[in-house]
Amino acid sequence: MALTWLNPHVYLDTVLLLGSVANAQGPGLQWWFGAGAMLGSILWFCSLGFGAKLLRGFFARPASWRILDGGIAVTMVGLGVGLALGS
């Protein structure tokens, strides 16, 4: 519970970031933006939970973790190169 409620990023993301973007949507559209953000959050976390359950058998093998780690490494190197080159 402390990890959730005492985490400052929860409040920064929710109040400042989403609040600022919602406020920029114009009159009457802020509530639609907020509803869409909540729906997106619900769908994301439900997908993570059910996806983890579905992929449990796949990730029981060490080779699957090596594939996942390799994909993450390629992604991070690509992002690093992109940032270094300014693109």
Strand pairing plus helix content: what structural class?
A: mainly alpha
Shape designation? extended
User: Major β-sheet, in short?
Assistant: none
Q: pLDDT under 50 segments (min length 5)?
A: none
Measured distance between first and last alpha carbons: 40 Å
Strand content: under 5%
The total of beta strands comes to: 0
Q: What's the tally of helices?
A: 4
Q: Determine Rg (CA atoms, Å).
A: 18 Å
Order of H and E elements: HHHH
Helix content: over 70%
What does this structure look like?
- The chain folds into two domains: 54 residues; 32 residues.
- The chain is 79% helix and 0% strand.
- The chain is built from four helices and no strands.
- The radius of gyration is 18 Å and the shape is extended.
- The protein starts with a helix and ends with a helix.
What layout of secondary structure does this protein have?
Blueprint: H1 2-5, H2 8-23, H3 30-54, H4 62-85
Helix pairs in contact: 2-3
Outline:
With 87 residues, the protein is an all-alpha fold.
Key features of this structure:
single chain, mainly alpha, 79% helix, 87 residues
